[in-house]
């Protein structure tokens, strides 16, 4: 879906982060509009997770600014909690609590009443095929189900921006597709703006309107045509090229 | 305070879901209480009958243990040990629980979600300190207070009534000062936990730093029972200040690049 709202919900300008004399992220500018899904692709250690943490306000940038609906990212938790939701490769759930207890607890922490959280969970659960998972301790659940719970927690806060840090990294293809389909549906239906950090170039091609390549310098690709686009950044993505070639040969 | 309570409630729920840990903590405490109660009870029985008391003193002398008024001496030492063990158990168990308070969040991967929530770092740390102290305190007081109250009815402990409830100084020390000092230690242990990434290092840090502190503080609280109630209140106030400083320090530690 092409962005229809000209006002970006998420803006980053000249965003850099250096730590221990290492440049982790350098000179990133981006605008993200409601309903848009931006892919974030780069090699391991290329700064993708760091960039997501900067966009979420979890890390302070060395230079530059991030705003969400005009609110500086580092003030989000205090003044506009819930506007930005994050999904990490690890689902981030308490293993001794049930799915519902986890979701309730995080919801209450965001100021929702227990009844309100339950209503939102029950509305989201069928689409995410959560079923009995809500009543089981999360330690007993599969990685895919736990990741769906994590997505349910994120969506229950009704965020404006969803930051996905390799959300399907540990999942089988069916679970991965189910989660990404839900993300697409939410972006289309509710105008949720999404940043998807992934190594799955096929998923990025299918899902993202634009891609930001984090290579030696950030490269914006307005139209992402999948892995074939990658020669633009040279040998950095050679493994992807090789995998693609192998797949085509097969 | 609502968010602090939410953190406490969730921590306590997790504690309840680890019945093995609760049983182990309870058994250690029960063993200490039973041992001291049995010793003081036996001495109470000996002291009640002059003939048995004379035999006891004769046996001690025959064994080469020269003591003037052995029963009161042993009772006082037993009660001193009882008070010391109660407090050191409270502080030690609290430190062990608190030592993995924040590293547990890292291991569960929940730390980014907590930092994104409208939860101040001080609220998170205070909630964890309260929960880490509350479970051991309930175990220590739940097992120790009834035994202490029972012992306080025995005439043999009358000269040392200040070492047992319902003496106000004892109540202030164990119901107020103990948990406050436990929370202070918990916040120090949590600060250590905030900087490390694995439970092993967190526990080692807790034992090497907090263990020594818990011995010193337990000795100070037990030793201070001889003073009046106002002094116990002063000790509790110092514990409160130490808790607030510890929570603030831990929140500062956590505030420095919590994810990296």
Structural class of chain B: mainly alpha
Share of helical residues of chain A: 25-40%
Main sheet: strands, sense, barrel of chain A: 6 strands, mixed
The chain-level mean pLDDT of chain A equals 83
Q: Based on the structure, what is the oligomeric state of the protein chains?
A: heterodimer
The helical percent of chain B reads over 70%
Overall geometry of chain A comes to globular
Please trace the helix and strand order of chain A, writing H or E for each element: EEEHEEHEHHHEHEHEEH
Order of strands across the main sheet of chain A: 6-7-8-3-9-10
Number of domains of chain B: 1
User: The biggest beta sheet of chain B, please?
Assistant: none
> Gap between N and C termini of chain B, in Å?
29 Å
Question: How would you sum up the global shape of chain B?
Answer: elongated
Entry summary:
With 250 residues, chain A is α/β, with parallel strands linked by helices.
Please name the defining characteristics of this protein:
heterodimer; A: 250 residues; alpha/beta; 8 helices; B: mainly alpha; 10 helices; 0% strand
Describe the structure.
The complex is a heterodimer of chains A (250) and B (260). By secondary structure, chain A is of the alpha/beta class. Chain A contains 8 helices and 10 strands. The relative contact order of chain A is 0.16. The mean pLDDT of chain A is 83. Chain B has one domain (2-255). The model of chain B has no long low-confidence stretch (mean pLDDT 90). In chain B, 82% of the residues lie in helices and 0% in strands. Chain B has helices at 2-16, 19-48, 50-62, 70-99, 101-108, 111-116, 121-151, 168-195, 199-223, 229-255. In chain B, helix 2 (19-48) packs parallel to helix 7 and helix 8 packs parallel to helix 10 (229-255). Chains A and B meet through helix 1, helix 2, strand 6 and helix 3 of A and helix 1 and helix 6 of B.
């Amino acid at each position: 879906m092409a962005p229809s709202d000209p006002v970006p919900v998420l803006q980053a300008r000249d965003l850099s982060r250096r730590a221990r004399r290492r440049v982790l992220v350098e000179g990133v500018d981006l605008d993200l509009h409601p309903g848009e899904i931006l892919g974030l692709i780069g090699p391991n250690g290329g700064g993708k997770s760091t960039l997501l943490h900067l966009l979420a306000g979890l890390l302070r940038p060395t230079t530059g600014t991030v705003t969400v609906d005009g609110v500086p990212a580092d003030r989000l938790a205090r003044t506009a909690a819930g506007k930005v939701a994050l999904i990490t490769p690890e689902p981030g759930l308490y293993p001794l609590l049930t799915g519902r207890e986890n979701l309730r607890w995080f919801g209450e922490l965001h100021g929702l009443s227990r009844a309100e959280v339950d209503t939102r969970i029950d509305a989201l659960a069928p689409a995410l095929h959560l079923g009995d998972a809500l009543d089981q301790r999360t330690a007993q659940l599969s990685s895919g189900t736990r990741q769906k719970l994590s997505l349910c927690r994120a969506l229950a806060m009704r965020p404006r921006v969803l930051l996905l840090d390799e959300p399907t990294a540990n999942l089988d293809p069916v679970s991965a597709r189910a989660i990404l389909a839900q993300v697409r549906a939410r972006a289309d239906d509710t105008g949720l703006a999404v940043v998807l950090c992934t190594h799955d170039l096929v998923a990025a091609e299918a899902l993202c309107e634009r891609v930001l390549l984090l290579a030696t310098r950030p490269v914006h690709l307005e139209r992402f045509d999948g892995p074939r686009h990658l020669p633009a950044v040279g040998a950095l993505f050679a493994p992807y090229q090789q995998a693609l070639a192998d797949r085509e040969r097969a | 305070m609502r968010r602090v309570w939410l953190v406490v409630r969730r921590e306590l729920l997790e504690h309840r879901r680890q019945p093995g840990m609760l049983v182990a903590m309870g058994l250690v405490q029960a063993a200490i209480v039973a041992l001291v109660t049995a010793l003081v009870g036996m001495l109470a029985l000996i002291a009640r009958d002059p003939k048995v008391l004379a035999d006891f003193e004769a046996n001690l002398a025959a064994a080469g243990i020269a003591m003037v008024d052995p029963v009161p001496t042993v009772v006082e030492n037993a009660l001193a040990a009882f008070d010391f063990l109660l407090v050191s158990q409270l502080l030690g168990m609290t430190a062990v629980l608190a030592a993995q308070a924040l590293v547990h969040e890292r291991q569960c991967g929940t730390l980014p979600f907590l930092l994104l929530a409208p939860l101040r770092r001080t609220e998170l740390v205070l909630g964890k300190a309260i929960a880490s102290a509350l479970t051991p305190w309930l175990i220590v007081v739940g097992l120790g207070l009834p035994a202490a109250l029972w012992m306080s009815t025995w005439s043999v402990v009358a000269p040392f009534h200040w070492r047992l409830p319902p003496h106000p100084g004892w109540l202030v020390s164990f119901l107020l000062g103990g948990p406050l000092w436990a929370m202070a230690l918990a916040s120090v242990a949590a600060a250590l936990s905030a900087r490390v990434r694995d439970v092993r290092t967190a526990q080692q840090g807790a034992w090497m730093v907090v263990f020594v502190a818990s011995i010193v503080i337990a000795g100070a609280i037990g030793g201070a029972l001889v003073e009046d109630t106002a002094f116990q209140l002063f000790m509790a106030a110092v514990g409160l200040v130490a808790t607030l400083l510890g929570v603030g320090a831990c929140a500062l530690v956590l505030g420095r690049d919590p994810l990296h």
